[in-house]
Structure formats: structure tokens, C-alpha cells
């Protein structure tokens, strides 16, 4: 093998041995709006993170769907919060979204490649909406968990396809900043 004499750092970076390539594309209003609206797919993930933490601490929610946890909380007047919620059903309710998001992100990668980013984001949004409706009208724990699974599928599709969509839409100089709007959307969703 020949030694790499005379090769400088960066020589392997461009198509012609280190030349800097200017890619076409400018940050226009339509590109900016497309990227920001696409990145708002993070809102559903953040919102659901905030909701699941909030509702599991509401006494009326616990009384209706998790009466054993509610009774235990009412009897326990200590200030120690450790293992206060030790119900496996409550754990299933909380974690079902994240497990479904993991599984669906694997399916979403194929769907995103096959059908495109916008279709994948639309499907994720529709599945999320179906889960939200099911959870809003839930009358028992089974409906709640199934709704959370649908929410997880929607979140999995969105978190897989949105960053790719924004990266492909954004001009290369602004790609990192516009992809951070996705992270910001997740944080705003948690806040809301």
C-alpha cells in the first residue's frame, strides 16, 4: 500500500479532491414556511409527553380509570413520591405510546422511502388524530391504552419523517437552524 504523502486534510471532502461546492438553493419565504410548518410535527410528540405526565397526577382521572392507584394515593399522606404509582396498568398506559412509537418508526422508515416524506407526515398526523379522538371519548382503560398506541404510531411516523423532510427542504447553510425548529416544537408541545 502506498503512503499518503502530500495529502492534506480535507482532500477527500469534495467531488474533485477538496474543492468547495456551492449548492443551489436560497432561503425563500415559501421554503422557510414549509420547513417551519413541517417542523411543527414535533408539537404532537411534546404535547403528548406533557399530557401523559399531567393526567396521571389528576385525582379525577385516576379515580375514573385507575381506582386502585387513586385509593392508594388518598390513603398515603406522606410527602415521599417514590413508587407512589406502582400500578402495572398505569405503567402500560404511560409506556404504550413510547413502545408504539419505536415500532412505528421502523415501519415509517420504509413508508417514508417508498411514499415520500409528506405522505408519511400526513399518515402520522391522521393516526395521531385518531388516537386523540379515541382517548378523548375513552370510557375504559382498554380504550385509553389503544388510543395511546395510536398516538405512539403517529409520533413514530412524525419523528422519523419530519427531520428528513426539513433537511431536504432547507438550503444547506440553514439546515441545522431549521432542523432545530423541530426540537423547539417538541419543547413548545411539552410547555402547552
From TrEMBL:
Residues 34-192 form the Major facilitator superfamily (MFS) profile domain. SUPFAM superfamilies: MFS general substrate transporter. PROSITE patterns: MFS, SUGAR_TRANSPORT_2. One of its GO terms (cellular component) is membrane. The keyword Membrane applies. It comes from the Eukaryota. Pfam families: Sugar_tr. Keywords: Membrane, Sugar transport, Symport, Transmembrane, Transmembrane helix, Transport. InterPro entries: MFS_dom, MFS_sugar_transport-like, MFS_trans_sf, STP/PLT_plant, Sugar/inositol_transpt, Sugar_transporter_CS. It is found in: Membrane. GO terms for molecular function: carbohydrate transmembrane transporter activity; symporter activity. The chain crosses the membrane at residues 27-47, 89-112, 119-139. The keyword Lyase does not apply. It is a multi-pass membrane protein. Gene3D superfamilies: MFS general substrate transporter like domains (1.20.1250.20). Belongs to the major facilitator superfamily. Sugar transporter (TC 2.A.1.1) family. This is Major facilitator superfamily (MFS) profile domain-containing protein.
Amino acid at each position: 500500500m502506498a503512503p499518503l504523502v502530500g495529502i492534506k486534510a480535507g482532500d477527500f471532502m469534495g467531488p474533485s479532491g477538496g474543492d468547495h461546492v456551492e449548492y443551489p438553493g436560497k432561503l425563500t419565504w415559501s421554503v422557510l414556511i414549509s420547513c417551519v410548518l413541517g417542523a411543527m410535527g414535533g408539537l404532537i410528540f411534546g404535547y403528548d409527553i406533557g399530557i401523559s405526565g399531567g393526567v396521571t397526577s389528576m385525582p379525577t382521572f385516576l379515580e375514573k380509570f385507575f381506582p386502585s392507584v387513586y385509593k392508594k394515593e388518598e390513603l398515603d399522606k406522606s410527602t415521599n413520591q417514590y413508587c407512589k404509582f406502582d400500578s402495572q396498568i398505569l405503567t402500560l398506559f404511560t409506556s404504550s405510546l413510547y413502545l408504539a412509537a419505536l415500532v412505528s418508526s421502523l415501519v415509517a422508515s420504509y413508508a417514508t422511502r417508498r411514499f415520500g416524506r409528506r405522505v408519511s407526515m400526513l399518515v402520522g398526523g391522521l393516526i395521531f388524530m385518531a388516537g386523540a379522538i379515541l382517548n378523548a371519548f375513552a370510557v375504559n382503560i382498554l380504550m385509553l391504552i389503544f388510543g395511546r398506541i395510536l398516538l405512539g404510531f403517529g409520533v413514530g411516523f412524525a419523528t422519523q419523517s419530519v427531520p428528513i423532510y426539513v433537511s431536504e427542504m432547507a438550503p444547506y447553510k440553514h439546515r441545522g437552524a431549521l432542523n432545530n425548529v423541530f426540537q423547539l416544537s417538541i419543547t413548545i408541545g411539552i410547555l402547552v
